[in-house]
From TrEMBL:
Chain segments annotated as transmembrane: 28-49, 69-89, 109-133, 153-178, 190-211, 244-267, 287-311
Keywords: Cell membrane, G-protein coupled receptor, Glycoprotein, Lysosome, Membrane, Receptor, Transducer, Transmembrane, Transmembrane helix
Assembly with partners or alone: Interacts with heterotrimeric G(i) proteins. Interacts with ARRB1 and ARRB2. Interacts with MLANA.
Spans annotated as Disordered: 332-392
An individual GO BP term: melanosome organization
Localization in the cell: Apical cell membrane; Lysosome membrane; Melanosome membrane
Membership in a protein family: Belongs to the G-protein coupled receptor OA family.
Gene that produces this protein: Gpr143
Bilayer topology: Multi-pass membrane protein
Signal peptide: none
Any GO CC annotation of this UniProt entry: melanosome membrane
PANTHER family: G-PROTEIN COUPLED RECEPTOR 143 (PTHR15177:SF2)
Protein name: G-protein coupled receptor 143
Length: 392
């Protein structure tokens, strides 16, 4: 799981609230983390592998949105590997981890492992948050026709730059003046918690706003194709809206427990003695949410693939072949067709008018197809293969 408490635990003079959760059934907690991360890792890879029975088609033009979705999954996979490695060492070598609890100037490997593994997990999940924010921005810009593959370079600079900068800044302030003599008190740790939870809160607050505006822009874009809003267009707009809702639902499910747990632990830290009887229910709630975090945080990778692509099935095709990206199947069905000719038929320059209409229709199809990936099963697959739907 990803929590700033992992870095705080690396300080020998850690606070009592961190000591409470980190010493609560460490073997059981590490086992829960390994199990959840392993299941999520295997299912995520299974989701991303090509499947048998999918007919190869011509690869359409790539999009920045599809690249971002893949990068989010990669961050979750690498973060899950970090969780598995850290938890495995904690279970297999308890004496190695116990050396962190004392100031041992001759053996810095336990502290180095504690800091390195915690930073690896925190950095990758933080980068995943920034990529998810970039996806919301890119979705809006794509509909506004202001984005493209060139913007992915800017997204890389922003995502990795901010993730590394905030992580290093938070760690530096947390371990000041040194790892073996961290400052006592909550105040010196607050910047670290802010830099950790800033991208998470950004996604929670800003992404729903951007998604809502994107859905509104999609409706306007679809209406502008023929000047009317048909049932098929309404259905496509609803698909995109549901897809955005699934993404935010997964994010809230996986990370709301972190916010609750951190609020409880901060409240306990402010108390003179966290072991007092009136605080028993507060301690129990903190420990319960701590275990929930160990289950839900690593599961984000698999749950996101369900929100992105839907369930892709078990039948894996290990033979390499160039295949169509599922979420861009719509753009190939409209390429080269004048599906939506101009409703106004000018007597002069009629060929130029049709050419412009075709170009606008194709640009609209490309923008919409980048947002409607993942709906390729059941009745929806049959609908998309019908002649009526081929115009979308």
């Amino acid at each position: 799981m990803a929590s700033p408490r992992l870095e705080t635990y690396c300080c020998p003079n850690r606070d009592a609230a961190t000591q409470l959760v980190m010493n609560f059934q460490p073997e059981v907690f590490s086992g829960v983390c390994i199990g959840s991360a392993s299941i999520s890792l295997l299912l995520t890879i299974l989701q991303l592998l090509p499947k048998k029975g999918q007919s190869p088609r011509k690869m359409p033009k790539a999009s920045s949105s599809s690249t971002i979705l893949l990068l989010i999954s990669i961050c979750d996979i690498l973060g899950g590997l970090g969780i598995i490695f850290r938890s495995s060492v904690w279970i297999g070598f308890p004496g190695f981890i116990a050396n962190i609890s004392v100031v041992n100037r001759t053996d810095m490997w336990p502290s180095a492992f504690c800091v390195g593994s915690a930073m690896w997990i925190q950095l990758l999940y933080s980068a995943g948050f920034w990529w998810l924010f970039c996806y919301a921005v890119d979705s809006y810009l794509v509909v506004r026709r202001s984005a493209g593959l060139s913007t992915i370079v800017l997204y890389h600079m922003m995502t990795w730059g901010l993730a590394v900068m905030l992580c290093v800044e938070g760690i530096t302030l947390l371990y000041y003046p040194s790892l073996s003599s961290c400052e006592n008190g909550v105040e010196h740790a607050i910047p670290h918690y802010i830099t950790t939870y800033a991208p998470l809160l950004l996604v929670l607050v800003v992404n729903p706003i951007l998604f809502r505006r994107t859905v509104s822009a999609v409706a306007s874009l679809l209406k502008g194709r023929q000047g009317i809003y048909t049932e098929n267009e309404r259905r496509l707009g609803t698909e995109i809206q549901i897809r955005f809702f699934k993404i935010m639902l997964v994010f809230v499910i996986c990370w709301s427990s972190n916010i609750v747990n951190e609020s409880l632990l901060f409240y306990l830290e402010m108390q003179p003695d966290i072991n007092e009887m009136p605080l028993k229910n507060m301690r129990s709630a903190a420990l319960i949410t701590w275990i929930i975090m160990g289950v839900l945080n690593p599961m984000q990778g698999f749950l996101f693939t369900l929100a992105f692509y839907g369930w892709t099935g078990w039948r894996v095709d290990l033979k390499w072949r160039k295949r169509e990206i599922p979420w861009e199947s719509l753009s190939s069905s409209t390429a080269g067709e004048n599906t939506y000719p101009s409703p106004v038929n000018y007597q002069s320059n009629i060929h130029d008018s049709k050419k412009i209409s075709t170009t606008d229709s194709q640009q609209t199809d490309e923008a919409i197809s980048m947002l409607s990936e993942g709906n390729t099963s059941g009745d929806d697959r049959a609908t998309r293969s019908s002649p009526i739907y081929q115009g979308w």
